[in-house]
Write a structure and sequence with these properties.
The complex is a heterodimer.
Chain A (H helix, E strand, L loop, with lengths): L5 H19 L6 E6 L8 H9 L2 E6 L3 H10 L6 E5 H9 L19 H8 L9 E13 H7 L9 H4 L1 H10 L1 E3 L3 H11 L10 H10 L8 E2 L4 H6 L5 E5 H13 L6 E4 L5 E9 L7 H12 L1 H11 L2 E2 L10 H5 L7 H6 E2 L6 H16 L1
Parallel strand pairs in A: 1-2, 1-3, 5-6, 5-7, 9-11
Antiparallel strand pairs in A: 3-9, 4-7, 4-8, 4-9, 4-10
Chain B lengths: L2 H27 L16 H8 L1 H34 L6 H13 L2 H19 L7 H26 L2 H9 L4 H29 L3 H6 L7 H8 L7 H42 L1
Helix pairs in contact in B: 1-11, 2-11, 3-6, 3-8, 4-6, 6-8, 7-8, 8-11
The chains are: A alpha/beta, B mainly alpha.
Chain lengths: 367, 279
């Protein structure tokens, strides 16, 4: 038996380290690497894509926007398609992280919803870098039965229900939760106060802090995730939430055989819209495959399946004909014209605003 | 007289409840037919069926376990070497610096370790063309760097409390350094190595932050997947997967415990025999 020399050992170690590359390398002809939230495609979407084009789709997920952004800004991630919040596309385009899309390779472009494209162009001038995927809004989800018990005949469309201390005290009995997302909460609160939602006057943030002072004691939690199950099983009766969460809560309650009915409301004073957007990183190794995938997602039938699965509206006007009728009719997913008129597209924050809002948010949360 | 045992027992019961009731409730709800945690919809194994059909979760779990196995093993080898050096080679140049450097990752915030590893990998790719792709290897290397610290600390403290005269005696009696290491030092620190390995394995298995920064296409680990699912709602098949992992890990820890107990017992017996023979 041959003795293991030192050099031999090093070679073996190197081989062991390199082995995973040999097996798992994903650069090359037939691959597109996608970076997205988990469960944000229909179950069959990627298989359908591979069946149609012969390109293998590798689907990776990120666990927080902040980490994803830090990674993308550092560069050379190896991803070909990423999903960004629409509001961030401009910043990413400016810093050269995302590439201009080649519309010649995207024949399905005409299917996109002009209204959503208009909103997106406010963040990404000329819609050069992004394709809208799913979109939704921030508002309030009410368990109508529980609200009726404590505040009969209340007007669910008005934020008076939350921000008037006497109402908040009543809602506290059935449980009131707010999103732990200063961006969303300030957007709603500024509009409620009749101020500019995109205000650059930092003094306006203090007014929001004042607004929360008398009702802070009535807020049970600040929460972005558990509010869905807490709503569904009746632990809380009112939640500040994103549009799709209301639908998921309803579905969970129905499946569990509970009789709760939920109503999602964008307040009459206005609420922010968000648009998740497909982008191609500037250093994507498989740009052609990325465009092939984007064009696949521009197909109304394919993206409609994703909407049926995720309960979020897509930015594809032609897809409405293929979305399940009950999904299309659900105002929490596809808002009616009145709700649509209340939505507004916020501007990205400056660093100064970011800092001021974070500070104000800490004051609000600690009470 | 009876009061103190009662107090101790209730402390013990509370402690165990604190540790295990959440895990037990998770196992319990993995057999829940309903999607909601607080509503018992009847007994069902449907989430286990769904789990095994969900290739994304299974792939992520397998990848996490592979990374944990490889990184724990390499971290244990390197960490044990550093631990022995720190405990036994008492005076060498820069020892304080070395021990400080080795334990720094213990107190370093994960985000900093993650970002700096990411930066290093990007720079290395530019300078020497490796790693061309981040993924399994880069995650494993990052995990080795922070988990070997734990192994080092454990091995070092075990060796510090062990009697150096045994090793010196062996050397006096003509053992070569390699023999001393193999026959004396390693057996003394074997429980520390085993627990260091287990610790490194566990840390690697549930790390999110550092993994997030160092991973690449095709390498989503289980903790990242679970966190990511939060955006659209975690499904109970995660409970089923967690139950399976708890059972496997529980069996592993029990086996390790039995082995450690036996080696300790045997060593005690040998020490007793040796004392008797000398006396």
């Amino acid at each position: 038996m041959k003795a293991i020399t030192r050099r031999g050992a090093v070679t073996m170690l190197g081989g062991a380290l390199a082995a995973p590359f040999v097996n798992r390398g994903h650069a090359g002809e037939g691959v597109v690497n996608i970076y997205n939230w988990a469960d944000y495609f229909a179950e069959t979407t990627l298989d359908d894509f591979t069946a149609k084009t012969g390109i293998k789709a590798v689907y990776d997920v990120y666990s927080s926007v902040e980490e994803m952004q830090a990674k993308m800004l550092a560069g050379s991630t190896g991803y070909d398609v990423i999903v960004l919040a629409g509001i961030d596309v401009g910043r990413f385009a400016k810093s050269g992280v995302v590439a201009k899309l080649d519309r010649a390779k995207l024949p399905g472009w005409g299917n996109l919803d002009p209204e959503i494209m208009r909103i997106l162009s406010g963040w990404d001038a000329g819609n050069e870098h992004g394709i809208p995927y799913m979109w939704g809004s921030t508002g309030m989800t009410y368990n109508t039965g529980l609200v009726e018990q404590v505040l009969p005949g209340a007007d669910l469309g008005s934020l008076d229900l939350v921000f008037k201390p006497e109402n908040a005290a009543k809602l506290a009995e059935i449980g009131l939760s707010m999103l732990d997302s200063p961006f969303d909460v300030f957007a709603l609160a500024l509009k409620y106060l009749g101020l500019d939602g995109d205000t650059t006057n930092l003094g306006d943030y203090d007014k929001v802090v004042e607004l929360f002072k008398p009702i802070r004691q009535h807020i049970r939690t600040f929460d972005n995730e558990n509010n869905v199950s807490a709503l569904a099983n009746g632990e809380i009766g009112v939640a500040n939430s994103w549009s799709g969460q209301a639908v998921t809560a309803q579905k969970n309650a129905d499946e569990a055989g509970l009789k709760a009915k939920f109503s999602y409301q964008v307040p009459v004073t206005g609420g922010p819209i968000w648009v998740d957007t497909f982008c191609v990183p500037a250093d994507a190794p498989n740009k052609d495959n990325a465009h092939a995938f984007l064009d696949f997602m521009l197909d109304p039938v394919n993206v409609a399946k994703c909407t049926d699965y995720t309960y979020y509206a897509n930015g594809n006007a032609a897809a409405k004909a293929h979305v399940a009728p009950d999904v299309l009719a659900n105002p929490a997913i596809y808002p009616d014209a009145a709700t649509m008129a209340r939505l507004w597209a916020p501007k990205p924050f400056s660093e100064e605003q970011d800092r001021a809002i974070t500070r104000a948010w800490q004051t609000i949360k600690t009470g | 007289m009876n009061r103190r045992p009662m107090f101790l027992i209730s402390c013990l019961a509370f402690g165990f409840a604190f540790f295990y009731v959440p895990i037990l409730s998770m196992i319990f709800f993995s057999f829940n037919k309903s999607r909601l945690a607080t509503v018992w919809g009847g007994f069902s194994v449907q989430w286990y069926g769904k789990l095994f059909k969900n290739s994304q979760i299974i792939d992520a779990a397998v990848l996490s376990i592979e990374i944990a196995l490889v990184s724990a093993t390499i971290a244990t080898i390197l960490g044990a070497m550093a631990g022995i050096a720190l405990a036994r080679f008492r005076r060498f140049r820069g020892r304080t610096l070395f021990s400080g450097l080795v334990t720094a990752p213990l107190i370093m915030p994960e985000v900093i370790t993650g970002i700096s590893s990411l930066m290093l990998f990007i720079l290395m790719a530019e300078w020497i063309g490796w790693p061309g792709k981040r993924g399994f290897t880069t995650v494993t290397i990052a995990h080795i760097t922070f988990s070997m610290t734990y192994v080092t600390t454990i091995v070092q403290s075990r060796l510090s409390s062990a009697d150096i005269s045994v090793e010196e005696a062996a050397a006096d009696l003509g053992s070569r350094p390699w023999q001393v290491l193999k026959d004396i030092t390693l057996p003394i620190i074997s429980p520390a190595i085993l627990s260091g390995w287990l610790l490194a394995f566990t840390i690697s298995l549930d790390d999110v932050v550092i993994t997030n920064f160092t991973t690449g296409p095709g390498a989503t680990t289980l903790p990242i997947l679970v966190w990511s699912k939060v955006k659209l709602g975690v499904t109970p098949d995660i409970n089923a997967l967690a139950t399976i992992i708890v059972v496997i890990v529980g069996a592993g820890v029990a086996a390790a415990g039995i082995i450690m107990h036996r080696t300790d017992k045997r060593r005690e017996r040998e020490v007793q025999l040796a004392i008797k023979a000398n006396g």
